[in-house]
Amino acid sequence: MASTQQRLRVAVAGASGYAGGELLRIAARHPHLEIGALTAHSNAGSRLGELQPHLRGLADRVLEPTTAEALAGHDVVVLGLPHGASGEIAAQLPDDVLVLDLGADHRLASAADWEAFYGSAHAGTWPYGLPELIRTAADGSVTTQRDRLAGARRIAVPGCNVTAVTLALQPGVAAGLVSPRDVVAVLANGYSGAGKALKPHLLAAEGLGSAAPYAVGGTHRHIPEIAQNLRVAGADDVSISFTPTLVPMSRGILATVTARLAPGREAASAADVRAVWEQAYADEPFVDLLPAGQWPSTAATLGANTALVQVALDAAAGRVVVVTALDNLVKGTAGQAVQAMNLALGLPETAGLVTEGVAP
Amino acid sequence: MASTQQRLRVAVAGASGYAGGELLRIAARHPHLEIGALTAHSNAGSRLGELQPHLRGLADRVLEPTTAEALAGHDVVVLGLPHGASGEIAAQLPDDVLVLDLGADHRLASAADWEAFYGSAHAGTWPYGLPELIRTAADGSVTTQRDRLAGARRIAVPGCNVTAVTLALQPGVAAGLVSPRDVVAVLANGYSGAGKALKPHLLAAEGLGSAAPYAVGGTHRHIPEIAQNLRVAGADDVSISFTPTLVPMSRGILATVTARLAPGREAASAADVRAVWEQAYADEPFVDLLPAGQWPSTAATLGANTALVQVALDAAAGRVVVVTALDNLVKGTAGQAVQAMNLALGLPETAGLVTEGVAP
Amino acid sequence: MASTQQRLRVAVAGASGYAGGELLRIAARHPHLEIGALTAHSNAGSRLGELQPHLRGLADRVLEPTTAEALAGHDVVVLGLPHGASGEIAAQLPDDVLVLDLGADHRLASAADWEAFYGSAHAGTWPYGLPELIRTAADGSVTTQRDRLAGARRIAVPGCNVTAVTLALQPGVAAGLVSPRDVVAVLANGYSGAGKALKPHLLAAEGLGSAAPYAVGGTHRHIPEIAQNLRVAGADDVSISFTPTLVPMSRGILATVTARLAPGREAASAADVRAVWEQAYADEPFVDLLPAGQWPSTAATLGANTALVQVALDAAAGRVVVVTALDNLVKGTAGQAVQAMNLALGLPETAGLVTEGVAP
Amino acid sequence: MASTQQRLRVAVAGASGYAGGELLRIAARHPHLEIGALTAHSNAGSRLGELQPHLRGLADRVLEPTTAEALAGHDVVVLGLPHGASGEIAAQLPDDVLVLDLGADHRLASAADWEAFYGSAHAGTWPYGLPELIRTAADGSVTTQRDRLAGARRIAVPGCNVTAVTLALQPGVAAGLVSPRDVVAVLANGYSGAGKALKPHLLAAEGLGSAAPYAVGGTHRHIPEIAQNLRVAGADDVSISFTPTLVPMSRGILATVTARLAPGREAASAADVRAVWEQAYADEPFVDLLPAGQWPSTAATLGANTALVQVALDAAAGRVVVVTALDNLVKGTAGQAVQAMNLALGLPETAGLVTEGVAP
């Protein structure tokens, strides 16, 4: 299937949004893709160039309404829709079409979790599109999620906050080095993570020069997804205090995640700690443990599918501190989707993706 | 002493720095102050207008070298000097002159802590200039630090990070509601907190659009000062994981601080939690617990001596989450110094200070 | 009337907007004002603290609907309303109440200009609230607009862009040194100038890291107001190319304004040029010509009623280049209104206003 | 020469700077390039990953000192050196090696201009690396500079400000529609244009939230280069008022450029004006005239080799207003260098370059 001669046609539903736009930016340079239908809801009928002026090569494309008809006849369909909207449209697409859902609808295995945090009926569970997710089996054997993506035709792409926190902590959890029972994560988030919603607190006049939290105190919808991932990595019981904060940047997530050393592992040294993360990510093309002493910045990941990670042991506090930086629209959304797509279709995992950020 | 007829003369050493400049901005509008000598080190001889172009009324003042002679003959001397420099100059000033040290030299009671984190000889301990600091006595009686500032003639003004974290957590600690043994604090910090040092990572090209941590893993010099404060508030044993992060704003600190509910208090309700913070800050002129559900932003505190606080109970995580926003140069430095000065001199505590931030 | 004993009551219509909020921030510290009714349109019924969280002392005030009844019984009424809305409400207020219109409705003397640029019926012309505006009479005698504000009871407060460009250029025009016939002005504007309108291009995700122009090519509504001011200063015929650009800051205007040396004055030296601006602003409390070689920054004016000005002669281009920096919400709106109010009421012109910016 | 089988080896001198780093970011994805020696001055001996943490694939490369030996044996050498440093090193490189100078040394044809603006001896003139530069011959025939780049082995890459202003104005000048005699250009500039120099006004604390001009009044070194380009395009006599301003973004230039309609062309309509720009750039792969009414933003060009252009006629002012947005490090420096390199080497002009910006 994966030939450079014959390009695969990809349709994007929600092409006027930030996630859809980023998918198109990457797809436009992907050696195996050809961009097909672009659809939108309220923006149907507009030229893409009015809504996504940075996508020069697609400026004259006109958005169609999001219907099964418009999305028919493609090899890949990417859904960048509001929560709750992807189930119905996906059901109308053939089983052999690869459908990637950038929204939350199909991420959670637990219908109860879905209903508790989203307040609607659960749309079902699709294979989870985080290739680096560590899977610790009951017998202790370890694989990654990428094994489950080969040949998949429905993929639920993880959220940006979840990706950052999961990548930060899973090596320590899988190795039994840190306890998943009292995790604290505080994130600095760029504004594009909130989408194009017209809300007063998302105005530039409000955001410039300011930092503010949101969804504090256990209410954020990403919490059950993080817990699910850490359980896959090997945790029995997960407790996480999760606080995102908006800071004045357009893109980027900086996740500061701490967990206690696990009972029985309190004597671990800094070298012991580092070795666990080194081993976990030694062969990952997009997750990069920095040299000791160098800390990640979000700028270094801008536009790239890279997650930068650094870990330290705070012996006095009995905690491991891990910081992850990534671009919420790339490794946190659209780049991750393309990475999962590559795996599903048997293409090289890195096809069409870059690791170099646009900095400074 | 505190008459509006006769103004008190204040000298500022380090008038070319951010802390000194902010002290001058406030002093210029203080009804009881008159600005005397302005001194600097490498900038001696320059017009203030070249270095602090926002201080219009003082633009033609010329900076003198920082010497005891230059600082003589004032009622108040404010030292905005690099760490390690204030002890020597303070020793040369008369005992009846009020000296406020904006640096760290005289904050720590423990010489061992000083030496461990700063690597030099301890300069001694001065009364601590955080008026709202809760003091829990051995008999359980509670006062605040402001009682100890009346009449003081040497005051160590706390740092900005320390102020933010202490104000966030001390009500819960003093009330025995939260445990001080596993505190996690992650801060979003504006660049002015780093001073005017010419370092590559402080360049605008690097900072714009980026977030990055520093001093991760228990190494930050503010940690022992936070622990000291929480012990004053009533903690027996303190453990804190503390991570500051630089985000693209010039001023402001947003501190996200979490602590576990104390043993025996795990059943506390959200209302129980809120009541503790409400009671602690009900009468404070500069610490403002927001209405339930409203979260602080740093923009709302810009230029004001206000600390905005909100608290939530994350029952699932067993943690209280507190967020504090303040202006690092005002409530975090120069405004706090003026507040402490007012108390020391018997002036109204709020004289010369505003609570309205410059927003948006 | 102007006694410190008896405070004047001020009502603010449009208290939920940026201009109204800034008026309140200043009024809260004004020694002669007491804040009365606060009104709004769609936000009526809300606590001010939800909408203007930086105005701590007014947080519990509840907004009333904007009606003549709500605004009755005050000494001063400030209207921060959308264009076209102030005429009707002002007509219902007694003649002896001082009404300050922050909007455009009553600024233009020419009904034709109003109709051409605003497309609605002209509401009439009020005394113009730019105290520093140079008035050159037919006989060549020179005064400023402040003379016309004493005792006024209706004042049209100028816009922020207009203030910046007028202050930049009027000394040269009044002195006949520069020609008003081919002025070019390009402005860098902060986002608060656009108000709280919920438009996609005003989102933080769009604005952070970007610069973009708007209202290019002679279409901006502020153009006839600038021309009117320059004619008052002495110009016969005015032509101006005016381009505002949004840049990533919340507040501030940096206006770069150039004009050709007037016919017959082409041999003017840099000293000649400087002397004209020096003389014009020597006694102005809020307009500050910087020392030669020092250029204005908007940061130095944040929160202050200061306009910083610098001028240079580009002999090769035959043009004078003037740069003005000011805070669009202070000297560009609310501070200017208070300054004009002070003059109208016989208070000290500088009462309640500061010249020190909040920087860095 | 241009085969995908055999990659060309490129060396970068000044690999620790912003221009050198951007060259490497592009070269790393260029299908015909292989990255050879990386050299630096004070940073020689460092790992690239410490200095350019966004260039993940090159993180372990070690910088060598900048010597002719280190640069020997490459097909292409890119010099990202301080002004005045490239002449000597270039003289030591073989004539058949393609040398691209990102600095100013070899851009000006006039030694007198060089000496007047740079104050040192002129290093000589190389073919000018702006492929889209319109060349109007004495007989009125029109070509572009790209014709002169084929086979070139020494190329002087233009500066970012110059590229923005030249692309804005040259169509009108070449067509005789606008006069080059009284051009006004005001630019909003991101901080990366100033390089990594450690100067106080380049600190993030100073730049965040502020706008300020520099090199005002005809002193900027880019002025003679702009004039040279406009003369090549067909101007007889050029006069330009040029003012750059620093605004709070890391990358990007927004140039607002105005010129009077030429004598005899005062009756030109908006359609006439637009037609001139449309015709000039119809076939350009990297210069994009936006649809009428849509204005450029710098965000849309981030990381791309795109220049976005829009033009309007201000009939009342008798001026054409043109706005150009580009990324100063890409179309303004490193992308332009690669574009010129492609032409020199007979590769496809667009090889290794993208037109899609990273937005929002």
From TrEMBL, chains A, B, C, D:
One of its GO terms (molecular function) is N-acetyl-gamma-glutamyl-phosphate reductase activity. It catalyses: N-acetyl-L-glutamate 5-semialdehyde + phosphate + NADP(+) = N-acetyl-L-glutamyl 5-phosphate + NADPH + H(+). CDD domains: AGPR_1_actinobacAGPR_like, AGPR_1_C. Pfam families: Semialdhyde_dh, Semialdhyde_dhC_1. Its main location: cytoplasm. The active site is at C160. Keywords: Amino-acid biosynthesis, Arginine biosynthesis, Cytoplasm, NADP, Oxidoreductase. Residues 9-141 form the Semialdehyde dehydrogenase NAD-binding domain. It comes from the Bacteria. Gene3D superfamilies: Dihydrodipicolinate Reductase, domain 2 (3.30.360.10), NAD(P)-binding Rossmann-like Domain (3.40.50.720). Catalyzes the NADPH-dependent reduction of N-acetyl-5-glutamyl phosphate to yield N-acetyl-L-glutamate 5-semialdehyde. HAMAP family: ArgC_type1. This is N-acetyl-gamma-glutamyl-phosphate reductase. The gene is argC.
